[in-house]
Amino acid sequence: MAASVLPFVRGIDCSNYDFTNGNFPRTIGDMVGLRWLKLDQTGLTEAPEELGKLQKLEHLSLKRNKIDKVYGEVTTLPCLRSLNLRYNSLRSSSLPQDIFQVEELTTLDLSHNNLRQVPDGLERAKSLLVLNLSHNNIEAIPSQLFVQLTDLLFLDLSHNRLETLPPQTRRLVNLQTLILNGNPMANYQMRQLPSLTALRSLQVRDTQRNVLNIPSSLEALLDVGEVDLSQNGLSRIPDGLFVLPTLRRLNMSNNVMTELHSAIDLWSKLETVNLSRNQLRSLPESICLLSCLRRLYVDSNNLESEGLPAELGRLPALEVFSASDNKLETIPDTFLKCVSLKKLILINNRLRYLPKGIQYLPKLELIETRGNPDFKAPPKPNPHALANAYYNIDFSLQHQLRLASAAGTVALPTPQESGTLSKQSSLDAGSNTSLDKDNVRKRGRRGRHQQEEADQDQAKILKGLKDVAKDKNHKSIDELKAESLKPRKWVESLEKPTLDYSEFFEEDVGQIPGLTIWEIENFLPCQVDESVHGKFYEADCYIVLKTFIDESGSLSWKISFWIGEKATLDKKACAAIHAVNLRNFLGAQCRTIREEQGDESPEFISMIDGDLVYLEGCRTASGFYTVDEIELPARLYRIHASGPSIHLEPVAVHADELDPRHVFLLDAGRKMFIWTGIKSKNTLRSKTRLLAEKINKEERKGTADIIVCAQGKETEDWWEVLSSESDETYRPSVIREHVTEEFVPFAAKLYRVGLGMGYLELPQVELTTRGKLEHKLLETNGVYLIDCLGEVFIWIGKQSTRLVRAAALKLAHELTALITRPTFAVVTKISEGTEPMIFKTKFSGWNDVIAVDFTRTADSVRKTGADLGKWASEQQTKVDISALFTPRQPPMSAVEAQQLSDDWNEDLEAMEAFVLENKKFVRLPEEDMGHFYSGDCYVFLCRYWIPATDVEPDAKNEDDDPQDDFQCVVYFWQGRDASDMGWLTFTFSLQKKFESLFGSKLEVVRTRQQQENLKFLSHFHRKFVIHRGKRKPVKGEDWTAPTEFFQIRSSGSTLCTRCIQIQADSSLLNSCFCYILKVPFDKEDRSGIVYVWVGTRADPEEARITEEIAREMYDGERFSLQVLNEGEEPDNFFWVGLGERKPYDTQADFLDYARLFRCSNERGYFAVSEKCSDFCQDDLADEDNMLLDNGDQVFLWLGSRSSEVEVKLTYKAVQVYMQHLRVQQPQRPRQLFLTLKFKETKRFTKCFHGWSTWKLPV
Fold this sequence. Notes:
25 helices; 18-stranded mixed sheet
């Protein structure tokens, strides 16, 4: 074995081992580098002599042992800082005075011992900061103690026999916590208390306090936050406490107070008050002024309903109100406003009713009303009612509102409010605060320069893909098979598989210039050490990465994979695959180059500096299965019941270990024997059989034979395997009962291996549930040791580092030798994802042998220990429709929009425009700036000024002035009718050129028609014109100049103003908008007339902009311009140009109500999200379903490729939305309509600016 790692161990936790009868491990003395050591609850009776060798030990814990004396072993530790000896059998004479002369000792815990006096010499420990002498029999504190220990921060003298403290206590000016609970101090006046100016916590519970022996002048205690005066017989709160300005927690329980002083409101920061078990009849009105109060306990008093202040429920921060064992008949109605309330405990009162609707408080988790015989509980909605459940989802309005409220989306209304609140009152009163915050946050996002340039739709798609990937990482194989019912096109199956490249490559790969090489082992790349770079085995394959800095100063890479001439097929394939994976992981643009042994390119030779050496054979194993049969050593396990599961206790492979009361499992690899004693239980036999079948199926690929042997009917093979370690087959004449009834399995201990700069640590992981191991404790980036006495497992997480793995292997062997173990103990290495069943049985609930049988009754299943609630919660389908309950985003004011536009345009230094013509990008003429065509693609290069960062005057040199910087953003705009070839042309032409010019200062934003971000729109000053067709259309012989009809409209903000060409149809007119109509006089478009039509309700500013656009768009010499107000239309050209005069809308109220919701299961679960107020026709995705609310109707738009499950869940969601609207906006009833693609009505299309006909699928 390699050199021992014990000298490098810095800390180890040996708690809960049995070190009685001289079993303390001698190897502890070899850990000369130990800094901390835990030996809690190990049965020690004295400090082991090996501790004297640990000269660097700083923290020693020996609690919960049977130590009655401490000698020189501890006193010789010069670096000792903390010593914990609580729960032992120490006496005052058990501690030598030398121990207190250690200069570094700052923490000493001697609580729960048999001390009758303060140990002699304790005053010499002048460095002590924490001293705990509680739960002893100390009768007096020597005055000299506090003369020397003036640096104390924490002092616990509770539960002793102290009657007073020495006058020198006033010298403890640094003391922050003083605990004197449970001492007979009736005559102690606490005169030193005002001198403890740093005090923060004072606990004098059960010390015979009264109003006379508590100082009245405590003004100097400015930092006291906690006071405990419970169990003292006080008739009122001492006056001296009212001057404590920072008090946060007050415990006055178990006293005899009959009233509470009205000055309680002086404690403005009070958070917790315990007034239980007094004689209070009422609470003062001033308690309602405690705005920070979170927990109020008034149990076991004489409170009646009239004694509770009417405004008590208006405490904004109140989370817990406990008033059990009183005389309450109800509580004030103001509790309905207590939005933070989580627990309401009213056990054993005279309750008759509670305020109606209190059960719907958004954060309420618990209402306890037991012991109130006349109380009628408020009705609760049945979350599993068949009428509302769908796909095991509760679509009831109250349940969905509760979920939305828990997510912080909307506040729940009370039933009284539900029937009367209008839209304004219900939204503003219910969630006024959150709405204001949302508005500020939303507008703040619009004002942030750097983030507005991001493509919002791409960000949402990426987020959805990440969420799906995260969800899939936590799913089992069975769940993934039945993951989605959504049909997939054949082209979708050609997408790249979702891979977590971090499983193959470390995060810092390719970030530092140099050479990195991996070898292929068992299908995976394993990084090789730099010392063997260039030394390639003929039967192996390698991946070579060269990282360097290119001419632009950016990181660049070259990737090759080398194939040995004798390499196996799996290594060759995996080298090519993982080379591509490495390129994807880095985001590299280079190709992966194949290099073969003996035919390497000069570039490859230069990559490895010409040092290429061929070695015979192979260093790594093939990943294919081989015909070599793995020899598994025989292991014998005794089966014990462990709740609903079983425990496997490893024993020696010998016939003498058999016991007729037990079942045994003998695992011999290709054969698995189950031996059943004549007195063993049938349930254990069945569970053992199931375990064996599971091992055979999951680990042996079904190749093992399972043989059941009953006692007295054993086969020859059974006895041969059981005697494999001896020369002759051994059969005992009598199998005796030798396992004691009191047998308790060894409590498994979980260690996490810690590795630092030159040291190792082995702390125990704290177990959460009943001291049992749980699967969730194992983190993928860690390495763990699981000590089961007869078995030691090394569990290696997928993302753990190589150094920690190597250290764990060494530590496992050291840990095995640390304590006395049976001769059959083994060390097993396990990788994450390959855990065997024997290992899983050590953990609670990890792939239990017997799942819950739901054909049985719930009571009978519950008796087995199965968690029905956990199973039920796992079966619930996840949904998120909280967006349906959020308030509509209010429009941005014109002033704010103008301010944003001015700021963004002020930062814009230059903007160049290009348009795609004849498969290449050319400069866009200046006169065409701001005019876009739906069949073209455009590129805008914008240069933004970035001001220099301010530097502190004293940190800035006189000659070193801060320099301004710039950033270049390229906006790629694609029309609705343009193909994706424009984007491909851009990425391989202009984008490459821009990247070479601007490097890291360049950002590319791809945007589609009517999905532009606000910053881009602001550069056109509300003159953003979108034409139909192409900029230079092909004009054939039959070409005739068309009539052009434009609508000017803004959605949500004046920044979103667009002038879009629409179909020339008079029915599309609306009195609330402005339009431009061009009527040509000849088919060559040489002359004509242009009308600017202004509706009677149109915005005057939009009318002015419309006229300006028309004058700039058309040549005044060829086209005459005429501005028409609604009702002034001429009968000749205007109505002729629009076909004929038709009825049109005169109202546009839908702009104040229009909302578009997307319903999709893209994230792996059904979710509803809201599109921004500036939505467009292209937001209607074929793969999803959409909800459109225009204030009068709600449309359910079904995507042509949405799944049946999405359609059904969308229908249930829209029903909930309609029900919610009837409560929130009763004055505007909605009707529900179903619509399909290609069949949208005008009531639907009018909500979309620039609606055009759908493109037919190819």
